[in-house]
Predict the structure.
Amino acid sequence: QVQLVESGGGLVQAGGSLRLSCAASGRTFSTIAMGWFRQVSGKDRECVAAITWSGSNTYYTDSVKGRFTVSRDNAKNMGYLQMNNLQPEDTAVYYCAAGDRGGSYDWEYDYWGQGTQVTVSS
């Protein structure tokens, strides 16, 4: 089993930046793909970014391309989502996720963090 704990959320003004962190424990992190999802109340979770175990392949949804960067440090069992030029429409609860397969869909991940709130004011 894998346990994921997220941190780094908060309140920022439009144009500001936040860095979300995801600390993993339990299973070997270096072999696990990682995804980042966000959810607004009443809507489905949206995959905003994903990264393979090696970090050589990444995915971003169109709305965050050029603004968000996903990365990982396997030696530290940490995953990161750097969010720049944040906009009010980025406001959501953000979740990190891990799984053997990875991808851009919920069912491709087996383990989830507790979520962290990101709020962007206009």
